[in-house]
Amino acid sequence: MTHFAATDRNTSGRRKSTLFCWGCDHENPLDGDWDRRPIDRHVEYVCPVCETTIAKRPLPNSPPTERATPTPSVMWQRTLHTTMGVWRASIDVGLSTLAVATAVQASSGHR
């Protein structure tokens, strides 16, 4: 088996961390000429040409946000909601199958 070097596969010369502005087609590496604006616990990457916000990323020193553990009543509510959705879908499929079977029998009986 032949293995290619990473430079052989990536002939465009672009780095994986290249950002692209959809407003003016400006492109540059993540650590390039983008304007960095810290807001709360995030930093926004803004295009230096057209002022379009390209990305919003957490600051490196900010703690990761933790998801709150749902309470038992919320978990039961989600379970009940999902169960009712599945039940409704199975009833709809059953009724559709019954309608098709009835239509097939009615059309075959008229011949």
TrEMBL record:
Q: Give the DUF8106 domain ranges.
A: 15-57
A Pfam family: DUF8106
Swiss-Prot/TrEMBL keywords: Plasmid
Annotated InterPro entries? DUF8106
Q: What is this protein called?
A: DUF8106 domain-containing protein
Please name the source species: Natronorubrum aibiense
